[in-house]
Amino acid sequence: MKLVYSVFIFNLLTNIMTGQLGKMHSEEDLKKFKEQVDQTIALGRDAIIATASKAVSDDPKSLIKDENLHVSVYYNEMRVKVIFMERSPIIYLSYLSDSEFYLKIGVFVYLDKVTGLEASSIPDEYSTGFSLNRYIYRATKEKEIAIDKVLALNNTNDDMYHINKNSINTIIRERESFYAIQIGHSYPITYKLDKKSGKIYDYKDPYADFYPSPASPPYMIPYGGEWVEMKE
Question: Is residue 151 within a helix (H) or strand (E), and if so which, with residue range?
Fold first, then answer.
C-alpha cells in the first residue's frame, strides 16, 4: 500500500512540475508571471538582493557583506529567487539555544516584495521542534572563540577524531557536559568530547557498515522551468 501511495505522489508531483504546468495556469497567467519576472530583473541584482536580505536578517547590510555567506540570484519563467548559503567550515551551536539555524535560505522576490521562502535547517537530535526563532547561521567572534576552545581540547592527531579550522562540513553542538561532534552530513561520523577531560567517546562511523544509498529519484524540472543564474 505504501508503495502504491508513493508512486501516486511521485506521478502527481512529476505532472505538476513538468508538462502539466500549462494546465495549472492559463496562457494569460503565464504571460503575467513572465512580465513580473522581467520587471523584477530590471531592478538589478543588487536591488533584488537588498530586498531579499531584509526578510532573513535584522541587519541586512552586514548580511550582504558577510564573507562567510554566498549569495546567488536565479530566475525562471515564473519566479525570481535569492539564495543565501552559509560557507563556514565549522558550525558551532551553543548550549540551550532557543533558536533554529539555517545553512541555506532561498527567498522569492517580486519587485520590492518577498513572496515566500524555502530553507534547509541544521539538524539537531536534541531539538524540540518548537523553536520560535529561526535565523540564517552567522559566524561571530564569540563562536570563533568557542570553536578554538573545542579544537584545543580535541588536541589529537588521530585522523579518526582530528578536526581543525579547515575541517569542512563539521558541526559542534555544545551540551551540558560534552561537545557533540559531527563530521559530514549525509552519512556523518559522530563522537562526543568531554568538556573537562577531553576524553573522546561514543564514536560512530557509518561507513564501517556502509550500504550503498538508494538510487536518487528522477530529476524533476523546477516549477516554472529551469533556473538561470543572474550574475550581474
Answer: helix 141-153
